[in-house]
């Protein structure tokens, strides 16, 4: 389907009826001056196709499409486009039988808008469906390429280029339908949510409530009948039981009184037997205790302790042996792996060496070929340029001309040099005679100069003899300044810490005259030095308030301080000569080390450093507590029967042997000792820096006289040196010195001229020889030039082929070598890692083996001690067993008698209670029987049925007590149900259940529809992906082909962004020759236009439309590229019609039909021309 004719009337600049007929089925061009109406023809086509975005046709509203907006008497715009529809296979759907299709659109000022198809009114949607079926969607036009679209394409991001590809593939229509389907899906989900909301918040709660009410109603109805039956049953049982108890009570009382008499007699006999057994047992027990004592208890505890310890140590031994075996197996595996890796490394190294040898041969071969090629090409260029060989820069004729010029130049220079030599010799003789006349003056200047130089040397030696280096004092002063800063900073730090530790500062006044202050040692906290910072919290908890105690030498000193020392606070004083210290016994310390390990529990005293004279005080403060690393160790130390010593964890938790535990948060725990430690370090550093500062001060004082002397001598040296420099300047200005310099200069110039004259003569001769040689070479070169060129071209071609093959082989060798090297390096690295692991394992195995041996010896020693103690315990047990046998016999007999006595007392009590109960029951039951008969009149009529089988009063088949419980429970339930039961619940429940079932059915239908829509979307998504991939491959191929046609020697393609797939977007990549451009900004404006046009045309070519409209796409192109576009359109789009607006002959000269527009008297006209090639 293609355009045959366009009829415009009142549309934009076409005021009168204008018929544009005779369109070529393939290639049409429209040209004309700016503003003549050529683009209005394209706008009219878009107008008929149903465009909605009026900006595409350069209008703000439909009224602007009417000629002069209806102000010139023309109030409507009509455009009719006639399409040739002779090819049925390319016809729109439903119009296959029409050979022509005429579509007309008309608008009237005021807003009326109508369409006609073949003269019949049609709806806009009908017109759009007609054009959509033949790929002419004007509102998303891939067939319409307007002026600004070219530049927009190149500025598109990867997702936007992918969108163009989707449009070309036709998947964009699927996206619209998918979006509509998703909206439908969303609506269905909303409906499901509404149903769920209705079910969850209204129907189901109401239904559940009615279901509960129905169950209550049914329970209440059934319970009433059951309640009446149970009431009669229980009353009948009460009546029968009351009569039975009343009749049996009198006989039972007399029998029980007789039993009580017999029980009293037997009780007296049993008490006598028990007293006799007690005497015999006491006698035997006293004899056993006298012989055995507490020896058994001690041995039992010892054996138990040894058994537990031996089990622990044996378990440790087994664990260590298993660990050693496991590590040895791992070591064997690693050794095996290392051997295999060594073999693999050797194989790879051999392969790498072979590859390197092959690559080296190929590199040499390639280098030789490259050098040969370069020489041949150079020689070839030289022959072409008329040179004798490729190394020459100029042709032979130019060389001959240059050689002749060189002969003339060399001759002139030679004559000039000879003249210069004569002139210099004459002037030199004159200067020498003048110099001889000034000799006496020169001798005086030399003597004076020598004297001044000797003075300078003397002062310089005096300066060097002074033991002082320049800048030494400044360096010392700089060091003094930095030390002063450090000392100041440390003093501030010490003052700050002292302020924080004011409570451990002990100040006092001398209690007596000439008091020896060394007797007062100080506060405990300041007298110790903590060995491990981690234990500070534990030590602070251990010492507690004792850290603030004051240590003195004797109680007399302490008394003097308390009475006359003017103390500012209350203190506790520790006199060294009276304090009773306590240290955990060595036996207990050893037991602790065995129990938890020496490193896990240490005596607090061992963690602090102190002076030997303070030993008693430190033992008093720290000697009775263990510091443990873990809570478990602290528990063991505190609660073990062999140790039972207070313990403190590193976190400050206290465990007392009495069972008292103290712990929890200790905010700022250990801060006191830590601050004291920091202050001690700061004071130590302060002393060091103060000493350093004093040393620097001493050095400065010592160097001050030397510095003064050095400064004075240096000033003399500078003065003498300055005088010498002034004298030298004056000496250089005298006549003798000037003449001497002039003579030296002339001699140098003369010598240079004599050496140059030899060179110039040689150069002149060489230039003459070169001229004769070049004249001969020019004659020989003209004879054999063609033959040399052919040979050189043949050699160049052969060498290039050899180089290409060598380069390919070399690249494969290098790739293989690189792969082998990487494998070798990886294996070596793995081998080193395994060897390191093996060394570590061997060390670990050695350590573990020694530990196993030590543990085994320890277990054997424990086993020996345990066996000895157990044998001793068994011997004592055997002796005790004989004595226990006699005692147990008496005890057994005594217990039997006691049990018998207890049973008889209990039996008597029961019988007494039974007598009382029976008498009461007799009285109560008589009253109860009378009341039941009076209250329930039916008893008299049904009394004969009570207790009979098969009746409602069968007490054997139905337990009366269970029936009583049921009755009570049923009465309670019925009374509560009576208040809550709904009598209309059955009808209400049936109605609610019907509503619920209807909603569930509706929800299931919607859910099925949702699943079907989702499944279809998933299937179409997969088909879209496959279609896009096929489209990408085809468009990419056409894109490269079209671009290389428009711009020979180039390549273009579409690629996904780095690290992504084609579904993430596509980027345009361009190469000139084989070099890829990093950015499209490197292209010129014309190249960018060609690139964008190529991409657009490649997209059009994938699914060709019957019609394509191009509006000045060649605006940025030169003539040659414009011609290429015309030829490319003919070559690649044989089945589509092109209507191109252009101002360049290169474009419209390729068209089959050319329309020229003119603007005459305010109205556009069109003239048709057929190009020569069509004719």
Short description:
The protein is of the alpha+beta class and 1175 residues long.
Number of strands: 25
Poorly predicted regions: none
Computed Rg: 62 Å
Helix percent reads 55-70%
Assembly classification: single chain
Number of helices: 24
Average pLDDT value?
80
Proportion of residues in β-strands: 5-15%
Termini gap: 23 Å
Shape annotation: flat
Side-by-side strand order of the widest sheet = 2-1-4-5-6-7
- SS-based class: alpha+beta
The main β sheet shows up as:
6 strands, antiparallel
Describe this structure in words.
This protein is an alpha+beta fold. Among the domains are: 213 residues, Rossmann fold (3-Layer(aba) Sandwich); 266 residues; 117 residues; 164 residues, Alpha-Beta Plaits, CATH 3.30.70.1620. Helices cover 67% and strands 10% of the residues. It is built from 24 helices and 25 strands. The strands form six sheets. The chain has a six-stranded antiparallel beta sheet. A six-stranded mixed beta sheet has the order 8-22-23-3-24-25, covered by helices on one side. Strands 13-15-16-17-18 form a five-stranded mixed beta sheet, sandwiched between helices. β15, α15 and β16 form a beta-alpha-beta unit. α5 runs antiparallel to α20. The longest helix is centred in the last third of the chain and has 151 residues. This is Structural maintenance of chromosomes protein. It holds the Pfam family SMC_N. It is found in: Nucleus.
Any chance you could write out the topology, listing elements then pairs?
Elements: E1 2-9, E2 18-21, E3 27-32, H1 38-48, E4 76-84, E5 100-108, E6 112-117, E7 120-122, H2 124-132, E8 144-145, H3 149-154, H4 158-169, H5 171-292, H6 295-384, H7 396-437, H8 439-465, H9 472-500, E9 520-523, H10 524-527, E10 529-530, H11 536-543, E11 550-552, H12 555-564, E12 573-575, H13 586-596, E13 601-603, E14 608-609, H14 615-622, E15 626-628, H15 631-639, E16 647-649, E17 654-655, E18 661-662, H16 671-733, H17 735-783, H18 785-935, H19 938-942, H20 960-980, H21 985-1046, E19 1050-1055, E20 1067-1072, E21 1075-1076, H22 1085-1102, E22 1107-1111, H23 1119-1132, E23 1137-1141, H24 1145-1148, E24 1153-1160, E25 1163-1170
Parallel strand pairs: 3-23, 3-24, 8-22, 11-12, 15-16, 22-23
Antiparallel strand pairs: 1-2, 1-4, 4-5, 5-6, 6-7, 9-11, 10-14, 13-15, 16-17, 17-18, 19-20, 20-21, 24-25
Helix pairs in contact: 4-21, 5-18, 5-20, 5-21, 6-18, 7-17, 8-16, 9-16, 11-16, 21-22
